[in-house]
Amino acid sequence: MRIAVTLNGADNVGKTTNARWLTSAMPDVEFTGTVDRWDRRWAEVSRRDFSQWWFVDSTTDEHIDLVFSSHAARCAGGGPLALEDRGWPMLVATCAATAAVKDGTSTAEALAQVEARARRYAPAPRRELHLLLRHSDQPAAEAHHAMAREPVPTTERYAEYQRRLAEAIDLQVGSGEYEAIVVRGHRPLLDVQREIRQVLTQLDMPVVPLPPDRIQHLWVLAGMSESGKSTAGELLRTEHTATRLKIGYLMQLAADRLGAADPYREWDELTQAQMLTEEILRFAALNPGSHRISLESAHRFDATAHLRRIWGERCEIVFLRLPDRLRAQRATEAMESLSARDSIKRSRGGDRIASIADTVIDNGHSLAALKRAVTEVVHRRSGARVPPHAGTAIPEALQPVLADCVARLTDSETALVATTGSLAHQGWQSGWSDIDLLVVRDTLPLHWLQTRRVPQSGPAGEKIALSSFTTREMLTGSVPPRVLHAMRQIAHDGCGLLYRRSDLVLNAFDAPTDDRASRSDLPLVAMVLRRIAANPEPDVRAVYKHVVLIMKIILRADGVDLDASEEVRLAFTTSHPDADIDLPAVTEVSGDRWRQHEILSHRVCGAAAKILAYHDVLGCSVASNRPQTEGPDLR
Q1: Are 83 and 28 in contact (CB under 8 A)?
Q2: Cα–Cα–Cα angle for 238, 241, 245, nearest 5°?
């Protein structure tokens, strides 16, 4: 029994692209393509004004004859297992939409007429599986998306054709013409291809599944020779936990797997991007820690653009730019050799990748500048961007001083003013807690900060501490770990928000990013706690807060995200009983109670000793088997 699998759908939904990719997953299939490959009359019609012939000059019978006689030839020429781009029902829908536009009939009437006439061209019996790709399950949205993805403006006649085609497809869906339907929506190509393969597997078709998808983010590094791609890739690896991979290495793996002698000659650039994607998925599946990939170096324009379509928002193209003079200075080869390599890259469109890059980095400055730029690239997309919610409840006694602070700190460039710490999360204790303020402004010249004259203390002598950052620093996460955590919480629930500009959108950094940043701060917190706790007359209040901070960081690494000190104390005591920490409740020590009851001070300092000892134990949980020596070997 001969079998045909057909991919169908409105224009620009990805039928041809998905069909070509699917061919590589069905070893015995013959991709017979579109019907215009199977009749020489298509070439003759195309030499003239094709649209004019399609919609005006041809009669409906002539149109149907060309389409369905070509389809019959394709059916006869295909092998035992054929993959067709637009099968019988799609060709019917196409001719019906055309007839409805030309003849002014309803879509339903045109569909019935075309079906009746097309039966004269019915091919030999075979099993047919018709898959439908849809932009949307609503005809109006279907037509809108089809036209929106056109590279050039559309005419009213073409727009009417798309509306009729969407209506015809919807009528066919209602009558059960398609075995399976995949709605593309705004999903990337990779997700659509995966679902197509899953659907065909369920229909008992021999399809190789895609490897599991564990990739969180893919940075594609591009640029001319010696522009700094390797340095950027190494920074992504060493400072941002990305796995660094080379395109050439992965392409060779794909070629060896599929028996291609030269993948760059045997595969077009779209196929190269698809095979590269499969190797990335396969690599990540075999190496569970490789969920963030740095890929270098891209210098084929079409392949790079298609890689973005495959991965969607997870893929970020980064183009590094460096003036020729500096490239020549940094290169270890002669300028003639560098120019020759540049010429090859330009012939492949490598220089044009800058026009589609998400980020273009000017690498003509210091290594410190490149490190900062790479950090900004990483943090800019580390979480969803959301507008901050409404503000938080402020104790009545603090409202006047905070209102005064907000008035002094807000102008046209101020994006946000917020409280952080205990005041943001309803854990503020009079006489114990500080007032921590955060201001975010487009620019922060020193003279602006000097003229704000924010009060230094609250109504009961509470210390007011002001931290200030630029909007760019805040959006890219170029802030200390505790501030990053505060911004994440503000983006999540708005707690602590006192003022925000209407256009402000925050980067809601995800929990893993928050956890990594917090753990990077742990050595500093432990150092400060040792310093203040070792003092003969320690500041018990500062000791207490640093003990709680270490607890927060450890809990955050456990996946427990709490802010209020009392909640942190109770959660840590429950989940880490081995630490044996007897830290008093905040209400026990707040105000001057710890001064009045000496035993409370001893308990707080004892808790500091215990948490530091526990921190040391956690740090020693991985023992080295390397033999130890008394000193360096200077031989």
Answers
A1: no
A2: 80
507 contacts: CB under 8 Å, gap ≥ 6:
379, 380, 382, 383, 384, 385, 474, 475, 476, 477, 487, 491
3-state secondary structure of 13: coil
- CB distance 241 to 291 below 8 Å: no
Contacts of 429 (CB under 8 A, 6+ apart): 422, 586, 587, 590, 591
The answer to whether 437 touches 465, Cβ cutoff 8 Å, is: yes
**CB-CB contact of 437 with 595 (8 Å):** no
Q: Does the N-terminal peptide bond of residue 297 adopt cis geometry, omega within 30 degrees of 0?
A: yes
- For the chain, counts of helices (H) and of strands (E): 27, 16
Q: Which amino acid is at 521?
A: D
List Cβ neighbours of 311 (8 Å cut-off, separation of 6 or more): 188, 190, 215, 218, 277
**Torsion from C-alpha of 84, 87, 90, 96, nearest 10 degrees:** 130
Cβ atoms within 10 Å, residue 313: 11
The Cα–Cα gap between 279 and 272 comes to 11
Q: Cα(583)–Cα(550) distance, rounded to whole angstroms?
A: 13
Closest listed residue to residue 345, CA positions, set 225, 230, 221 = 225
Tokens of residue 61, six digits: 């019978």
* Averaged pLDDT, 172-199: 96
Tell which phi-psi region holds residue 206, choosing left (phi > 0), alpha (psi between -120 and 50) or beta. Answer: beta
pTM, two decimals, is 0.75
Band of the pLDDT at 182, cuts 50, 70, 90? very high
Please compute the mean of the pLDDT values over residues 482-500 and round it to a whole number: 85
CB atoms within 10 A of CB 198: 15
- 511-550, pLDDT tens digit by residue? 888 888 888 889 999 999 999 999 988 888 899 999 999 9
Q: Tokens at residue 282, please?
A: 């396969």
CA distances from 156 to 55, 162, 163, 183, 244 (A): 12, 10, 11, 26, 49
| Mean pLDDT on 173-178 | 95
pLDDT digit string, tens, across residues 567-618: 999 999 999 999 999 999 888 877 666 666 778 889 999 999 999 999 988 7
Mind listing the pLDDT tens digit for each residue in 216-258? 999 999 999 889 999 999 999 998 889 999 999 999 999 999 9
Q: How far apart are CA 246 and CA 295, in angstroms?
A: 6
